[in-house]
Amino acid sequence: MPRLVLVHDWLNQVGGAEDVLTELVSMYPNAPVYTSLYDRQRMPSAWREWTIKTLWMDRLPGIYAHHQRYLPLYPLAFGGLHLHDYEVILSNKSGFCHGVRGGKNTVHVCYCLAPTRYVWQFDAYVEREQLGKATRALLRPIIRALRRWDYAAAQRVTHFLAISTEIQERIQRYYGRSSTILFPPVDTERFASANAEGTGDYFLVVSRLIPYKRIDLAVEACSRLGVRLLVAGRGRDQERLAAMAGPTVEFLGYVPDADLPALMAGCKAFLFPGLEDFGITPVQANAAGRPVIAYRGGGTLDTVIPGETGAFFTETTVESLMGAIQHFIPSAYDSETCRTHARRFDRTVFREQLTAFMREKANLV
Predict the structure, then answer these.
(1) For 173, which DSSP code?
(2) pLDDT for 180-237, tens place per residue?
(3) How far apart are alpha carbons 292 and 338 in whole angstroms?
(4) Which of the residues 10, 137, 213, 242 has an alpha carbon 20 to 30 A from that of 232?
(5) What are phi and psi of 60, to 5 degrees?
(6) By C-alpha distance, which of 277, 274, 294 is closest to 166?
(7) How confident is the model at residue 27, as a pLDDT?
(8) Angle formed by the axes of helices 335-342 and 280-287, to 10°?
(9) What is the tens place of the pLDDT at every residue in 130-155?
């Protein structure tokens, strides 16, 4: 069997990228994981059983809490990582980890969660983060250099896998490379088994509370309409969101994984207001039998069927989301239809399709 190595950008927070990595490790338990940094105290204790190898960036001061500040150093770190001893590299990339170097005959498969957002979508990124003009001016020459590096690194990849139609289009636009779509793994069975005593009186958001998720749209829309909204999750945007929230909005903070299925199964609809590359939580909500109200763009174009598993709003404005909520009729959606649709994205489908791809493209059996 060819020797396989996994590569991941950073391990200091748990999100969709880390869910994918967990699935990859379960598929290839003997493969080591190379990453720029690993905050052992914040990551799941089960990961301590993995073989995780960090780069020199792991020793930089304050990097666990502020890994974005070291943006220009990631290309140096990953570009200097030579994995010549491995026959197959499988990178799980949203940042710079696809820049690792293999041997002459190494097959590098990149599972692309996104071409690096703050490199290729810089203006949108700084707008969301509310960076000042001086900071933007300082960053622009760095971003131009990072684009050149990122493009060159992408040309060294043998095969690209894209998580959605949106990402497939960006891979072509930014890197000039073709790709195959492989939707991320979702544990739909865990949510399908949830028990709910009928539909509750609340809409639901489950998300990290950071600006680009656009949770502010949901908070303001539900506050103005006077409808109940539960917000599960934590993040640096929480104080700002709480300040704009009306009395019908409740912040639950961190909700344990074991409690999420029932919370989703009991909502009127799951609100997904941001532009995401894929978006696992809408699929989880469908798996729990509930429809989704989502912004029409990005990954939701692959995961939401209007009139069957959810509804779209078309502009990233409070008014557009309010209109979708006002016209939404929960009883018009069939729970079993939602669950059946969600199974298209189940982790078993991911495993089967990735296994077939790796067998064909990398001779990995």
Answers:
(1) I
(2) 999 999 999 999 988 666 678 999 999 989 888 999 999 999 999 999 999 999 988 9
(3) 9
(4) 10
(5) -70, 140
(6) 277
(7) 97
(8) 130
(9) 556 666 667 788 889 999 999 999 99
Determine whether 356 is exposed, middle or buried from the number of CB atoms within 10 Å of its CB (0-12, 13-18, 19+). exposed
| Radius of gyration, CA atoms only, the chain | 21
Q: CB of 106 within 8 A of CB of 85?
A: no
How many angstroms separate the CA atoms of 324 and 18, rounded? 32
Q: How far apart are CA 319 and CA 109, in angstroms?
A: 42
Of the candidates 271, 282, 289, 294, the residue with the CA atom closest to the CA atom of residue 223: 271
Indicate the angle between helix axes 133-155 and 122-129, nearest 10 degrees.
Answer: 140
DSSP type of residue 226: T
pTM of the model: 0.89
CB–CB of 60/70 below 8 Å?
Answer: yes
Q: Are 328 and 309 in contact (CB under 8 A)?
A: no
Nearest to 91, CA basis, from 168, 6, 12: 6
In 3-state terms, what secondary structure has residue 219? helix
Q: What is the rounded CA–CA span in Å between residue 91 and residue 161?
A: 10
Encode pLDDT of 339-350 as tens digits.
999 999 999 999
CB 25 within 8 A of CB 44: no
Burial class (CB in 10 A: 0-12, 13-18, 19+), 234: middle
Q: Which residues contact 152 (CB under 8 A, 6 or more apart)?
A: none
Q: Which amino acid, 14?
A: V
- Hunting for tokens 């930014």 — which residue is that? 174
Strands (E), 36-137: 52-54, 82-83, 88-93, 101-102, 107-112
